[in-house]
Design a protein that fits this description.
Largest sheet: 7 strands, mixed
Strand order of the largest sheet: 20-27-26-23-24-25-22
Number of strands: 53
CATH architecture of the largest domain: Sandwich
Number of domains: 6
Strand content: over 45%
Helix content: under 10%
Number of helices: 2
CATH topology of the largest domain: Immunoglobulin-like
CATH class of the largest domain: Mainly Beta
Distance between the termini: 91 Å
Radius of gyration: 45 Å
């Protein structure tokens, strides 16, 4: 049933994404068609209906999106049904527009616009608009003469405005007063009639079209109004003799040796005589075949030898059996090529025809077989049970099939057979080998295994790294309706120290992860090269992870092997840094100009000279930063006051001190720094407690 419907459900494509297209407008000449006005429902599906007059119409399309959407970019998927004249562009964020030119609308099936939508999160999905072309097709029959003869084929030309839209395969009648069929010859539509009964007989000519027209109720109709013509049928002027074989192959054997046939007997048919067979009643016709009559049979037939020399189709008209140049009888049979397959091609949705005959489990493909005499062939693909034939695209030189490949297919090769005999062509069943996102790769450095795709930056780890374990969740590789096959990976390992010096560099090749038992294809995968164990990092590097110093870095780069895939694979990096909140070391500095306040004394002493400090101190790092020190340090140690003052009255002493230091230059690898010291301690010489404050100089060698 055909009726106008809302179009919110038009975009249901097997995903959870909401439709983003609010309106689509097609302009063909002066006419416009839109989702809002011309959306129809036919056989349970939604279509945008539009009328065409030429098979190669040029169409301008405008596409409007909902005001609230999550679309970052939109692409029009290529199709064999049309050529893009002007590519899809965004017109000032108001609408999208593109222009296409259709390729023979009358021969296009399952016509649609498919759009690839990229959302702002970087995800992609597809939305499709089904198209329903319709056209007005007219056929006129003006016969020349109203007399026909029983058993004689008469050919008329039919006038039509759209010969490409006539379904000539659908019209072959049997058992009527006047049988008929249609053909195309030299760009003309031909009607072939053969009467069966004498008298006044009516021809009821029913013609079907490939693309429908809309009737008064708006319903698609594939059958044109019946054309009625009346003829006067007379007795045949020549006797029709039927052969027991109606399909003869022209080859070296039938041309030279001939084949044995039986023909209806007739008193005028003489034995031991060679009869000439031509395609015209008048003298001087080209030799099509010869019949040599041998002997009479008890079934009222005559056993003959038949030699054939030229091709002939039944629709081309009668064959005349002649004695010399005089026609004695008429007959008709096909003389054709031996079925020969010259080429087989495969078409996938959105792609071009290819000679690569590789197929994959679970996919739907069109297969085109090209050759000669294919209309007499009985082609089958052994083992494939869902086999559809596209009759609109099939003829004696081409056959088109739609094949559904079972997801559990066990054969590695599907042979094309003709009448049960194996041909030279076959389809090669391959396993899917598509790179998939690396979320099935997991890393465990001491905090449990996590997908490597969950890490969006360096990981700062404050504990010792006992080991790094790389594991794989192979159950994610093949889902119910999406097969990816075996994953071929390489793992690059790089270990650097806290001064960025290279400690270790290693590449692990030939990492092969195979789908698990949850995959439909599990029994058919070769498992000889599959990795079944986790990868332990310490088994591949010289300095073990637990031997690394603070702020050392482990970098893993996991990627698909380029030599195993025809498309771009995925790359994922993981950085693990041995972080610390604080560190402890011995610091040698040279405080100078210290102000020292001794316990029990009211006066502050004068500035000291250059001293030497050996302090065991703690340094503190900024959280969430890599080797970035906080400006202060705390430590305890020895202070040799005025060590470089050699005057006799110099107040030299050795003290035990606790110091807090502030370093204005925060980089630890700085060669020169000027810390400010604050602290106190005990003077060993004076046996007094004291406090101090003052600057210092730190030199890093």
């Amino acid at each position: 049933m055909l009726y106008l419907v809302g179009f919110a459900q038009l975009f249901a494509q097997g995903n959870d994404e909401k439709p983003v297209i609010s309106e689509l407008v097609m302009k063909i000449g002066e006419k416009r068609y839109s989702l809002g006005n011309d959306l129809i429902s036919y056989n349970g599906d939604k279509y945008l209906a539009f009328e065409y007059s030429e098979g190669d119409e040029v169409v301008e399309v405008k596409l409007y999106l909902y005001s609230v959407n999550n679309v970052a970019r939109l692409e029009l998927v290529n199709s064999n049904d049309y050529n893009v004249v002007d590519s899809l562009i965004n017109f000032n964020d108001q609408y999208y527009t593109f222009k296409i030119k259709f390729n023979n609308l009358s021969q296009s099936n399952y016509l649609n616009f498919t759009f690839k939508v990229f959302n702002e999160e970087g995800e992609e999905y597809y939305q499709r608009i089904n198209l329903f072309p319709f056209t007005q097709t007219a056929v006129t029959f003006i016969p020349q003469g109203e007399e026909l003869f029983v058993g004689e084929v008469k050919t008329f030309e039919l006038l039509t405005n759209n010969i490409q839209n006539i379904n000539t395969k659908a019209i072959i009648t049997e058992g009527e007063d006047i049988n008929y069929w249609l053909s195309q010859r030299g760009g003309k539509l031909m009607l072939h009639v053969i009467p069966n009964e004498i008298g006044k007989k009516r021809l009821n000519l029913k013609i079907r079209v490939l693309k429908p027209f809309l009737d008064e109720d708006g319903k698609p109709t594939y059958e044109l109004p019946v054309i009625n013509r009346e003829f006067t049928i007379k007795e045949s002027r020549l006797t029709f003799l039927e052969l027991d074989k109606n399909d003869i192959i022209l080859d070296e054997n039938t041309q030279q040796t001939g084949i044995e046939i039986q023909i209806e007997n007739n008193p005028k048919l003489k034995l031991g005589k060679t009869y000439r067979i031509e395609a015209q009643e008048e003298p001087g016709g080209a030799l099509v075949a010869e019949i040599f009559t041998r002997s009479s049979l008890s079934n009222n037939r005559v056993l003959c030898w038949l030699r054939v020399y030229a091709y002939h189709r039944i629709g081309d008209g009668y064959l005349y059996i002649k004695d010399g140049d005089e026609a004695q009888f008429i007959t008709n049979f096909r003389i054709g090529h031996k079925t020969k397959i010259t080429k087989v091609s495969i078409l996938r949705s959105g792609e071009e025809w290819t000679d690569n005959l590789s197929i994959y489990p679970g996919e739907l493909v069109d297969v085109r077989v090209e050759g000669v005499a294919l209309d007499k062939a009985n082609l089958r693909f052994a083992g494939l049970y869902k086999l559809l034939t596209d009759s609109a695209q099939s003829n004696e030189r081409r056959q088109v099939f739609t094949l559904s490949i079972p997801i559990t297919i066990s054969k590695r090769r599907i042979f094309l057979t003709d009448h049960g005999e194996q041909t030279d062509f076959s389809l090669l069943v391959k396993e899917f080998q598509k790179p998939m996102p690396l979320n099935f790769v997991k890393v465990n450095y001491g905090e449990g295994a996590k997908p490597i795709t969950d890490f969006d930056g360096p990981v700062l780890y404050n504990k010792n790294i006992q080991d790094v374990i790389i594991s794989f969740d192979a159950s994610l590789l093949d889902q119910t309706e999406k097969l990816n096959g075996k994953q071929y990976l390489t793992i690059d390992i790089q270990v650097t120290g806290n001064r960025r010096e290279l400690i270790d560099l290693k590449t692990i090749n030939d990492v092969v992860i195979c789908p698990t038992e949850n995959s439909y294809r599990f029994p058919f995968y070769s498992k000889n090269d599959c990795n079944r164990e986790n990868i332990t990092l310490n088994n591949h590097i010289r300095r073990k992870t637990h031997e690394l110093y603070e702020w050392s870095k482990i970098e893993l780069t996991i990627q698909h092997r380029k030599d195993k895939y025809s498309e771009q694979g995925y790359v994922q990096k993981f950085e693990l840094i041995l972080a610390r909140k604080a560190s402890f070391d011995i610091d040698i500095s040279f405080p100078a100009g210290l102000l020292i306040q001794k316990a029990g004394e009211k006066d502050i002493g004068s500035f000291s000279g250059i001293s030497i400090a050996a302090i065991a101190q703690f340094k503190f790092y900024k959280p969430k930063s890599i080797a970035q020190l906080k400006p202060y340090r705390i430590g305890a140690g020895f202070l040799a006051i005025n060590s470089f003052n050699f005057n006799d009255d110099a107040d030299r002493d050795l003290a035990l001190v606790v110091l807090g230091s502030v370093y204005p230059i925060k980089r630890e690898d700085s060669k020169l720094n000027f810390p400010l010291h604050v602290g106190g301690g005990f003077l060993m010489g004076d046996q007094k407690w004291f406090y101090l404050v003052g600057p210092g100089i730190k030199i890093r060698f």
